[in-house]
């Protein structure tokens, strides 16, 4: 039986309360009785002034915990900064320009670890990266939450959605004004979504300090897609880009080595560790050549099969460098197919230094620059081979 | 005409309606002025009671915030069809027109004044006010209203137990709202919003706009009216915001003194 609280409306037009009505002291709210908000009016000395704020023990404990965490992080940060300077002095580097990468290298040098798992090895990082972010105190001493969406449970996330809608509404108003002036959106400023993606769920969760359900993440993407699809979305570019992660162009990142020069002044590039199946190869491509190919001292006839020979020639033919370069290859292990594949990859990788960006992109699209990491699968006990099973007998 | 409506609504409704003061004259019923009967000052002690916010009939003058013609223009009197009428909403209905129910705006105005007065008093006492709505179209408006008057809003999916199991939901002992204002009491699947029941369980007073298909019983201050039209909801938001701001203004003044 759900208790129905009805305030008695008497004949006069103002509200009065029976003595058994709600008072915060009597009510079973989780906010305990030390909060002195009272609605009793039958006593003559009813308060004319608004009531005074008081804090409960539970509230004090919560605020204390939040304060302690903040102090802890501050202390850890201080220790980290001091430790970084000590480390720089130990390594003989300038403490002012000692970056996190230098710190990592120094720790690796001073504390060599034989452990396999990188996460298990000793590290030194700023406390923000080590300790999970915690929300600061979410309400003040009177118990009043700071955030207007506190009671939803995911204040930061829903505030974000609110801001998206706010932006859409503002852009709509702006668009109306522009239409009245017979103006159109600037096509040169239009936002391009190519080359970037929305912040992944875990990163978003870390930023908002709130766990998100899949449906909520989907709602986030939907809202932002809607915002971006507005013709004037470029006006809120900064806001959108905060939640956008650029997709890194791996090929652009790679540093193509400059060719070195030998005694004759000929440019050359060497690639070692060319691996394919069980083969290992080391390939040197020399520029200003005439198309000589030597594999382990022999020519192309090192390979008996035509397919292996074609594999080796393909990158040279595609880049039209067949008559321009000399190839020297050293290869051990594996069979003809593996060795040919290793040398082919080596040649393509070296040719990047002799060829322009467009051709490199074409080579990448052709799959010449992709490392084939497939290794032969092992034979398993209880089976005849990798996948082949022994004869199945019904009985 | 009223007799015809009374007859059509049934005997239980008739007694309910008679409770809600039909002794006013026909002229006063048709007038658009808010019907606040202020008692004349009879003695010295009356002055004291008028200075006390809790004894004053309308300390924050919420009756000035709106008129019945404002309600009419904001389409507050539109209800749903007769088929979806909730039995307990019958006292608030004026009649129907082409199967669509019409609220009696005099009754609505009276309830709205009581609700606004109560809201202002809660704000005056420094209470936490939570706006709740499940209307997706007006969610942004409701949240903006809450932000403007520095109160709180919840226009999202209601996780069961926010009030009744708050220790688990929020991880720590939290102070619950002192008032819940429902801009619509039904959720998207047209069942009653869980928060109505939770607020009643936790003794949290609730103010709610109840449409013809809503159940007003669990609300402390039901306000019969349209909860679907955007202009009506905007009017309610504006009125509640005004009432809260007035309450807070008085609070600040009294604290400063």
Automatic annotation (TrEMBL), chain A:
Gene Ontology BP annotations: translation
Stretches for region Disordered: 376-395
Subcellular compartments: Mitochondrion
Keywords, in A-Z order: Mitochondrion, Ribonucleoprotein, Ribosomal protein, Transit peptide
Pfam families noted in UniProt: Ribosomal_S9
Entry GO MF terms: RNA binding; structural constituent of ribosome
Transmembrane is among the record's keywords: no
UniProt feature, compositional bias: Basic residues: 385-395
Name of the protein this chain belongs to: Small ribosomal subunit protein uS9m
Originating species: Gryllus longicercus
Top-level taxonomy: Eukaryota, Metazoa, Ecdysozoa, Arthropoda, Hexapoda
UniProtKB/TrEMBL annotation, chain B:
Keyword line: Mitochondrion, Ribonucleoprotein, Ribosomal protein
Source organism, top-level taxon: Eukaryota
Gene3D superfamilies: Glucose-6-phosphate isomerase like protein, domain 1
GO cellular component: mitochondrial inner membrane; mitochondrial small ribosomal subunit
GO annotation terms (biological process): translation
InterPro entries referenced in this protein's UniProt entry, alphabetically: Ribosomal_uS2, Ribosomal_uS2_bac/mit/plastid, Ribosomal_uS2_flav_dom_sf
Chief location bin: mitochondrion
One MF term in the entry's GO annotations: structural constituent of ribosome
Keyword presence, Cell inner membrane: no
Entry's localization field: Mitochondrion
SUPFAM superfamilies found in the cross-reference section: Ribosomal protein S2 (SSF52313)
Family under the similarity heading: Belongs to the universal ribosomal protein uS2 family.
Function: Required for mitoribosome formation and stability, and mitochondrial translation.
Identification of the protein by name: Small ribosomal subunit protein uS2m
């Amino acid at each position: 039986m759900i208790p129905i609280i009805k305030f008695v409306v008497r004949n006069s037009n103002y509200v009065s309360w029976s003595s058994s009505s709600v008072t915060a002291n009597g009510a079973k709210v989780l906010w305990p009785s030390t909060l002195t908000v009272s609605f009793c009016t039958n006593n003559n000395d009813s308060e004319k002034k608004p009531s005074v704020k008081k804090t409960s023990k539970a509230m004090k404990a919560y605020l204390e915990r939040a304060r302690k965490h903040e102090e802890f992080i501050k202390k850890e940060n201080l220790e980290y900064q001091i430790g970084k300077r000590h480390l720089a002095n130990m390594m003989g580097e300038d403490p002012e320009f000692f970056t996190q990468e230098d710190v990592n290298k120094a720790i690796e040098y001073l504390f060599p670890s034989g452990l396999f798992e990188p996460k298990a090895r000793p590290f030194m990082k700023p406390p923000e990266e080590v300790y999970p972010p915690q929300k600061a105190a979410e309400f003040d001493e009177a118990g009043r939450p700071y955030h207007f969406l506190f009671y939803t449970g995911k204040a930061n996330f829903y505030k974000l959605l609110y801001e998206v809608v706010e932006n859409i509404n503002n852009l709509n108003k702006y668009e109306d004004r522009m239409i009245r002036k017979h103006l159109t959106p600037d096509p040169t400023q239009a936002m391009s979504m190519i080359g970037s993606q929305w912040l992944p769920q875990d990163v978003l969760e870390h930023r908002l300090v709130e766990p998100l359900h899949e449906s909520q993440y989907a709602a986030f993407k939907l809202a932002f897609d809607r915002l971006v699809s507005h013709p004037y979305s470029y006006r809120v570019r900064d806001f959108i880009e905060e939640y956008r992660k650029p997709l890194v162009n791996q090929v652009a990142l790679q540093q193509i080595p400059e060719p070195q020069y030998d005694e004759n002044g000929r440019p050359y590039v060497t690639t070692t560790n060319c691996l394919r199946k069980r083969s290992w190869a080391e390939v040197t491509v020399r520029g200003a050549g005439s198309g000589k190919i030597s594999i382990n001292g022999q020519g192309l006839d090192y390979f008996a099969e035509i397919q292996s020979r074609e594999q080796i020639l393909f990158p040279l033919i595609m880049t039209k460098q067949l008559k321009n370069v000399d190839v020297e290859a050293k290869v051990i292990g594996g069979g003809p197919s593996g060795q040919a594949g290793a040398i082919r990859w080596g040649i393509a990788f070296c040719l990047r230094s002799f060829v322009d960006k467009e051709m490199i992109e074409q080579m990448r699209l052709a799959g010449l620059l992709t490392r084939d990491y497939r290794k032969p699968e092992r034979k398993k006990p209880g089976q005849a081979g990798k996948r082949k099973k022994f004869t199945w007998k019904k009985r | 005409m009223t007799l015809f409506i009374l007859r059509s609504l049934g005997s239980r409704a008739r007694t309910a309606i008679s409770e809600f003061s039909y002794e006013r004259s026909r002229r006063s019923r048709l007038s658009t002025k808010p019907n606040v009967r202020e008692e004349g000052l009879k003695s010295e002690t009356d002055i004291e009671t008028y200075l006390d916010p809790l004894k004053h009939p309308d300390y924050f003058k919420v009756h000035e915030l709106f008129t019945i013609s404002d309600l009419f223009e904001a389409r507050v009197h539109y209800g749903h069809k007769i088929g979806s009428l909730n039995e307990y909403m019958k006292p608030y209905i004026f009649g129907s027109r082409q199967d669509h129910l019409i609220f009696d705006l005099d009754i609505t105005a009276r309830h709205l004044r009581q609700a606004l007065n109560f809201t202002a008093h809660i704000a005056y006492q420094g209470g936490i006010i939570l706006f709740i709505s499940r209307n997706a179209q007006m969610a942004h408006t409701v949240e903006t209203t809450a932000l403007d008057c520095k109160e709180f809003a919840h226009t999202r999916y209601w996780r069961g137990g926010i009030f009744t199991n708050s220790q688990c939901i929020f991880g720590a002992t939290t102070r619950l709202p002192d008032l819940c204002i429902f801009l619509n009491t039904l959720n998207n699947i047209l069942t009653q919003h869980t928060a109505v029941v939770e607020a009643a369980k936790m003794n949290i007073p609730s103010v709610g706009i109840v449409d013809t298909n809503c159940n007003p019983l669990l609300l402390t201050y039901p306000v019969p009216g349209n909860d679907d039209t955007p202009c009506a909801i905007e009017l309610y938001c504006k009125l509640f915001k005004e009432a809260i701001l007035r309450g807070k203004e008085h609070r600040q003044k009294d604290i400063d003194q």
